[in-house]
């Protein structure tokens, strides 16, 4: 699996624009980090792979609102509700903006809403789609979630300072004058993360050494957010979204490091099951072999003349039949025994018109002409240990267990 993560340019996007992108096989490590025009971007490969578009912080604005009752994430009037709630906070006409609501937003509770230029987002996604790299998700570069942190970002024009935490997202110039705009209750121990090119400037401005983090690693971490800006008109169908989540989730389960203990547990469980099944099968085979050996012993002890045992039950039946013939005994397969049973089961006043015996099966005509007439006869035969069937007007009788 190789997923592609593409950082969208904050300026209007064309097919000739270069996209910064990275490739990851597990969502945790970066294998490729480069720039290319849309047509030359790598293609995702493998089950669960996807193209993830990352919206830059400079193109987004964040607002916290309280959704009214009945205006949940699936409400058909959510878009109109957001326009009404944000109309006085926005610099642009709401009709020109795209909105996305935080995951699992609830009515009558504070919720974060992100806004961006609708035409810009549409053109960026269309360029990717026309290049054969449609985005499965659109995630923000920074989102209002998790513990607060400061990020020093390298920018060709002006280095920037980003703040992200559960209480909001800010994007400011990386300068001492920007410190006054940060949240006043920001803890002194707030982590500082800097890209290598601006690490020294970040230490000078913030008065503490930052933790180095390459741009690719930061973007890959941003893609693990639960946020997805592909909502309203940009949302894919419910079925496609569900299948994509299942595919991505399955790929994460197979490859992501955080699922390694679960994978080991599943492997141990499967191995234990296989060992248990093999032990159970060995026990059953041993029991079956013991029963076969017991049958052979009974046969050879009862009939010592039998030297080679091939099928003990069949040979036992054959030897018993031969012994019966020698002693003049009668078995349930003999004609006399079957006639006696049939006489006891036949309805009074009915006489057989034809008899046929082939050595083990008796065929009789005249006792029953229909299923209704044959049913009591068959039940009486069954009570005596015989099976019977009606074939046309012929009643077929054989000893039970006889093929």
From TrEMBL:
Residues 10-141 form the GspL cytoplasmic actin-ATPase-like domain. It comes from Ramlibacter pinisoli. It comes from the Bacteria. GO terms for cellular component: Gram-negative-bacterium-type cell wall; plasma membrane; type II protein secretion system complex. It holds the Pfam family T2SSL. InterPro entries: ATPase_NBD, GspL_cyto_dom, T2SS_protein-GspL. GO terms for biological process: protein secretion by the type II secretion system. This is General secretion pathway protein GspL.
């Amino acid at each position: 699996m190789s997923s592609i993560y593409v950082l969208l340019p904050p300026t209007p996007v064309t097919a000739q624009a270069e996209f910064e992108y990275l490739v990851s096989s597990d969502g945790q490590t970066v294998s490729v980090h480069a720039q290319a025009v849309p047509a030359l971007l790598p293609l995702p490969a493998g089950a669960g792979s996807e193209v993830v578009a990352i919206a830059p912080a400079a193109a987004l604005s964040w607002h916290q609102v309280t959704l009214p009752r009945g205006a949940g994430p699936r409400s058909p009037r959510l878009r109109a509700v957001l326009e009404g709630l944000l109309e006085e906070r926005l610099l642009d006409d709401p009709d020109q903006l795209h909105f996305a609501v935080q995951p699992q937003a609830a009515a009558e509770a504070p919720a974060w809403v992100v806004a961006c230029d609708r035409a810009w987002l549409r053109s960026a996604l269309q360029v990717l789609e026309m290049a054969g790299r449609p985005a499965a998700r659109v995630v923000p570069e920074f989102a209002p979630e998790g513990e607060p942190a400061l990020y020093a970002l390298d920018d060709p024009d002006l280095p920037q300072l980003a703040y992200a935490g559960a209480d909001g997202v800010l994007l400011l110039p990386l300068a001492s004058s920007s410190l006054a705009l940060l949240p006043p209750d920001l803890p002194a121990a707030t982590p500082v993360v800097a890209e290598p090119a601006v690490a020294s400037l970040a230490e000078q401005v913030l008065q503490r050494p930052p933790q180095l983090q390459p741009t690719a690693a930061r973007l890959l971490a941003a893609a693990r957010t639960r946020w997805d800006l592909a909502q309203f008109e940009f949302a894919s169908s419910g079925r496609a979204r569900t299948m994509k989540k299942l595919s991505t989730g399955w790929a994460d389960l197979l490859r992501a490091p955080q699922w390694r203990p679960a994978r080991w547990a599943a492997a141990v469980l499967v191995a234990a099951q296989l060992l248990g099944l093999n032990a159970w099968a060995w026990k059953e085979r041993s029991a079956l072999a013991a029963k076969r050996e017991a049958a052979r012993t009974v046969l050879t002890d009862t009939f010592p003349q039998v030297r080679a045992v091939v099928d003990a039950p069949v040979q036992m039946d054959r030897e018993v039949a031969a012994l019966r013939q020698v002693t003049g005994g009668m078995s349930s397969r003999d004609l006399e025994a079957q006639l006696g049973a049939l006489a006891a089961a036949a309805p009074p006043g009915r006489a057989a018109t034809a008899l046929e015996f082939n050595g083990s099966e008796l065929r009789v005509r005249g006792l029953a002409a229909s299923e209704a007439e044959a049913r009591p006869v068959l039940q009486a035969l069954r009570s005596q240990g015989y099976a019977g069937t009606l074939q046309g007007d012929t009643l077929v009788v054989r000893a039970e267990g006889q093929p």
